[in-house]
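Notebook entry, structure prediction.
Reason for the run: the old model in the group folder had no record of what sequence produced it. Starting over properly, with the input documented here first.
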Amino acid sequence: MHGLFWLALLFALAGRAAAAEPGGAAVPRDTVRITWDLLQERVATHPGFESARADSAWAAGNVRTAAAIPNPTVEAHRLTVDNRTNSVTRREREFALAFPLDWLWTRSGALRSARAGRDVARADLELRQRELLLEAGENFWSLVQGQALLATEEELDRAMQELLQAISARVQVGQARPVEASRVEVEALQERLGLEAARRALALSQTRLAQWLAPDSGIPITAADLFELHPLDNSPSLETAAEQHPRLVSARARIEQERGNLAVEQLRIAPEVTLLGGLEFAEDRHARAVGVGLTLPLFNHNRGRTRQAAAMLRAATAELEVERRALRSELAEALAAYDLSREQARSYREQILPLVEETAKALQQAWELGESDLFPLIDARRTLGNTRKQALLACGQAQLDRLRLQLLLETEVN
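New structure, fully documented this time:
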C-alpha cells in the first residue's frame, strides 16, 4: 500500500504539471529570440549608454566653451544734469565698453583642460560600453545555461518515469520487490523537484534579460549552444591591452586635464586686464575715453588654488599607477580563470560525461537483461544527472570567463 500511495501521488503531480503547461515544448506567442549579435547591437540604445554618450557630448561642448572668445560688456547711461549756477537742466548720454584680455594667456590652459576632459568622457563612454556588454553577456549565458539545465532535467524526468513504469510492471508480476518500486518513486519525486527548480531558475533568467532589454520586450529565448566555446580572438598582449584599456586612457587624460588646470591657476597670479572704452555725448561737447583696468594682486596671489591644482595633478598621476597595477592584476586573474574553466569544460565534455553516459547505458542494459540489481542503476542515473548538470555549469562558467577576459582585452566579442 505504501508503494501504491507514492505512485498515485507521483502521477497526480505529473498530471498537474501537464495541465499547467499544455503543448510541452511549444513556444509562447510573446517570446523574442535573442542572439549575442542582437544584444551587442542593443547596447547602443541602452539607457546607460545613452547617459554616457550625453556626458561625452557635454564634455565636447566644454571644448567649444574654452575655445570661445569672451563677449565684451557694453553699458549705456542717460543722465539728467542740473547746473547749480543757473538752474539749467541738460541731458547727457554715456556709453562704455569693457573687453577682458586675460583670456589671451589663460585660454591655452583652459583649452588643454577641456580637451583632456573630452578624452576622459570618451574613455568613460567606451568603459560603459564594456560594462553593458558584460551585463548583457551575464544575462545571456544565464539564459542559455537555464535552458540547457531545464532540457536536462526534463530528459532525466522522462527517463525516471520510464524506469518507474518498468519497475511497477515487474512488481505486479512478481519479478521485483515492492521496496525497489518505493525507491524508484522517491527518486522520481526528487527528480520532479529538480525539474521545478530548473523551471523557476529559467524564468528568473528570462525576467532579468527582459528587464535589461526593455520591460515590455517579451520572454527571451535563444538557440545558442552552451557547449560551443569559441577561442579567444586575436587580441593584443596583456601589457598592450592594459595600456589601451579605457580605464588607463581615462587616467592619462585626467593627468592632462589637471596639467591644464594647473597652468590656468598659475597664470591667474598675473593681474586681470580689461580694455575699457567710452563715449559721452552732451549738448556742448563730445568726449571719448580709452583705458585699461587692472586687478592688483595685493592680498591674494591665487596661491591656494594653485596648490590645490598641483595636488590634484599629483593625485591623478598616482591614480594612473594604481589603475595600471589593478588592471594588470585583473587581466592575469581573468586569464587564469579562463584557462581553468575552459579546461574543466573540455574535460567534462570530452572525457567525464561520455564515460558516465556509457556506464549508465551499460547498467541499464544489464538491468533489463536481469544481469544487475536495480540499486546500481539508480546510483548510475543519479551520477549521470549530477554530471550533466556539472558539465553545464562548467561550460557556463567558461563562457562567462571568456567574456570577461575578452572585454578586458577589447570591446569586440564574438
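Summary: Confidence is low (pLDDT under 50) at residues 1-29.
The old model has been moved to the deprecated folder.
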